[in-house]
Amino acid sequence: MRRSIRWHKRGAVTFLAILMLPAAICRASPAMTGKFWAQFAASSTPQNGLPDGYDPRRDPEKDLDAARGEAKKAGKNIFVEVGGEWCTWCHILDRFFHEHPNLEALRDKNYVPMKVSMSQENPNRAFFSRFPYIHGYPHIFILDAEGKLIRSQPTKVLEDGQSYNAKRFQKLLEQCAPKRQRVARAVLSSHLRKYAM
């Protein structure tokens, strides 16, 4: 009987400790909690400083300006993913890129990735008014470094079962890569043909 009372008291103490944890975190010094949140934010933001998720509070115009600046500097195009946290296929697309590091590397080498939220909370109508109508989510817009539309790509045709098709995605990423790389590949292949003869 004494043993069961001891375990019961331990359980109550553990339960109370868990209940008090949020209060302890809130009372922690601002320097400590600020450091925690700064590390958390840094780990969830890509290196290019653009959002990794679909945040309806973000200003897509400011994000596009930042993406344009980076794209001009790096000689890349802009890869705009339109979707929302509510969108199952948007999360599948994120997972797809993480599961295919070669495609993620190809995307990041040639494009500045950017996400724009489309939600009831913020449909971003003014931003999307310059682009063709979107029929489903996620949707991809590929822009040049100036922000001009190169391609409007529904992702439905890139789907394969419960994910996306790697070959179709690779083709899309290669076709819409910045011209400098296509020209460089053409020059290289012509030189290779010339020396092969």
The overall average pLDDT, rounded, is: 80
Tell me about the largest β-sheet.
Answer: 4 strands, mixed
Oligomer: single chain
Q: Report the count of strand segments.
A: 6
Structural class: alpha+beta
Q: For the record, what is the CATH homologous superfamily label?
A: Glutaredoxin
Terminal Cα span:
93 Å
CATH architecture assignment: 3-Layer(aba) Sandwich
How would you describe this protein?
This protein has 197 residues and is α+β, with helices and mostly antiparallel strands. It has one domain: Glutaredoxin (3-Layer(aba) Sandwich). It has eight helices and six strands; from the N terminus they run αααβααβαββββαα. The protein has helices at 2-27, 30-44, 60-74, 88-99, 101-110, 125-128, 166-175, 179-196, and strands at 77-83, 111-117, 139-143, 149-154, 159-160, 163-164. The strands form two sheets. It has a four-stranded mixed β-sheet with strand order 2-1-3-4. Strand 3 (139-143) and strand 4 (149-154) form a beta hairpin. The longest helix is centred in the first third of the chain and has 26 residues, at 2-27. It is globular and about 70 Å long.
